[in-house]
């Protein structure tokens, strides 16, 4: 941005400098007039122009605009080229500004780096506005005007936490923790109770995020198998995760293992084109295990870094389809030792407690190792995040907070909690 300004300034400094040369000869036609009455005026003009040229040269050498001040009275002469005089002044005034921009550029870069984290938190807070409205703001309203912690407050708090998708078991643990602190006189007012709840909810999330980093294998491709029920956004999530790996400089291959849903293969191929990555696909209704079988061989032969495998959406209650998932996983392990290295479950955060049931049954079938929560920018209730972490003891890898490519965020417990509990935005 600063470079663009410097180019603009340099152009302005160079172009007007030529205008005195093009405008000064304009007096020549008047000088050729045979009228003797103009002769005196011509001599005066010639004298003034010579003085102007000398002043301009001195001004450029000294790089100051102050030297041109004595030329202002020239504007009263009827024939003098007075409008041309301020142009060199403007040219000389720009030069020091360009120098100033060059000096201030490092400071601007440092200031931008310092503001990057708050800016990210603000964007995340804005994306979570509906989630915050459904949970945090109701919590604020509950504590508003309360002067002491009593049984009525705990009853209202229990109802709020359960309706915020924290679940009965998690809610009881939170309230028991708070009651113990009140009994020990560690909490004296509702505001301190709110802070205690915030810290406890944060602990539910952080305790199981220590191993949240995706660890690449020492050799061979890193295979991620993506599972979930219908409509949670598995294929879109795969496309956005592929974008992250491509930006990190990894070679990526997508596998269209969802051969059941109409247009699922085409959708994944579109994501492959957007990211510039190869997609292994077969005709609709093909055996997904055979697609995965071929994909593992291709991944080893071409030495891809990351392989993302899409699977057909299925209800966690459909036993035959869950058996098909187990078969796909077995085929991966046979063709590539250790695969899949990550079994990622995608959950729609708006489904609430049903998401816990999905996670448990998918875990029984294929052993999930990571979770992605989508649609947190919708009407989701923030308690589902803490509840899933506590119930499943499985790290959350990503959260989806919008439709854009960059709206699939790496999950950071600290940033999420701060954004969730942020005061109402101005």
Protein architecture, described:
The chain has 426 residues and is an alpha/beta fold. The chain has 2 domains: 2-97, no CATH class; 128-426, Rossmann fold (3-Layer(aba) Sandwich), CATH 3.40.50. Helices cover 56% and strands 10% of the residues. The chain contains 17 helices and 8 strands. The protein has helices at 2-14, 19-23, 27-31, 39-62, 86-127, 129-134, 136-143, 151-166, 168-183, 190-206, 234-247, 264-275, 288-301, 319-335, 354-366, 383-392, 413-420, and strands at 222-227, 252-257, 278-280, 306-311, 342-348, 370-374, 396-400, 408-410. It is globular, with a radius of gyration of 35 Å. The two termini are 29 Å apart.
Descriptive labels:
GTP binding; 426 residues; EC 3.6.5.4; membrane; 17 helices; disordered N terminus; AAA+_ATPase; Rossmann fold; 8 strands
